[in-house]
Amino acid sequence: MPEVGSVVTLEPEDETGRPVVLQVLPALVAGGVERSTVDIAQALRKAGGTPIVASEGGPMELELVRAGVPHFKLPLASKNPLVLRRNVRRLERLMRAHDVDIVHARSRAPAWSAYYAARRTGAAFVTTFHGTYNFRSPLKRRYNAIMVRGERVIANSEFIARHIREHYAVDPGRVRVIHRGVDLVRFDPAKVSAERVVAQAQRWRLPDGVPVVMLPGRLTRWKGQPLLLDAVAKLADLDFIALILGADQGRSDYRRELEETIRARGLVGKAVVLDECDDMPAAYKLADVVVSASTDPEAFGRVISEAQALGRPVVAADHGGAPEQLIRDQTGFLFPPGDAEALAQAIRRALALSDAERRLIAVEALAHVRKFFTKEQMCARTLGLYTEIRRQRAYGKALQRLQTAWS
Q1: What is the pTM of this model?
Q2: pLDDT tens digits for range 57-80
Q3: Distances (CA, A) of 174 to 100, 155, 188, 306, 388
Q4: Is the CATH number 1.10.287.950 carried by domain 20-181+374-406?
């Protein structure tokens, strides 16, 4: 027992709020997981913490280098059980060398290795549930379940939070909704000059004065590119051009299939497949309508918020995280998933908007994004979660000392 007059306190030993956080993900290619990883690393560094990232690398690695964030190349995309086991040791060594407080896993394969490395080192384990994942078999569900083992489980939409509660055994108190955020410095309509928009139109050789319907997103079937072509074919009486915009990421056969569909259905000049764009703010400003036609529910789908930030009316499938992001029939229009006729009618409605209606949508859409879906909000809430975990752990240690002292 402590001596009479001695003081035992439950105050945390360290409330600096400057943790060392290791984020793990498969690779740093262009995508929502990768974008969020880079944004959080940059925000943590700006706040005085120490961010570290481990992945197999990729184009976005350069952004970390520019921000002074250390990146370690490890084979974290592999699902091979032997590689996963070796990654436990690799991550453990990395975490001990850098005194990592929190490891934040953003994908299942690296999460399994990070979980056991965290147990060995005593670091906190946090996850972000970025998608619904395939869980048709018990084995697959068990594989996915690593994403709910975090001391905190971040869901990037209310839709994902509901999915977690419905399909996995998890204490709801550990699940926190932190929406993805738009960089309103980059996606600021006031900063996108007319010259940038004209230059982008010239690069794509777009005809003057023809309305543009745009579907941005990587070229993969579930993003709904064939559905858009079905809808375009139903709008032969309207004058517009549909841009299918995105990288095929090696899916060259799928790109050729889309191009062949355009030719076979007589849509040459009405629809075109383009590579990903280096100036997406200018691309959005070119669009009269931005479409999100995913046939599977998206966890969030940042295209919807980015387009609204640039004041564009959005047409989106009514499932996943889409309904959370727009104001129905005010900043965009929803249609039943997979329904080409309904998509066509929604596009027709959006193209028929008057100039005054478009101006009103632009004001309301940007205000909506600023209120709920900014990068600053996402980063602040995530860093606040890190601080919450550290304080909880510090209080736990203080309580343990108190119990030991009085035993």
Answers
A1: 0.87
A2: 999 999 999 999 999 999 999 999
A3: 21, 10, 34, 29, 12
A4: no
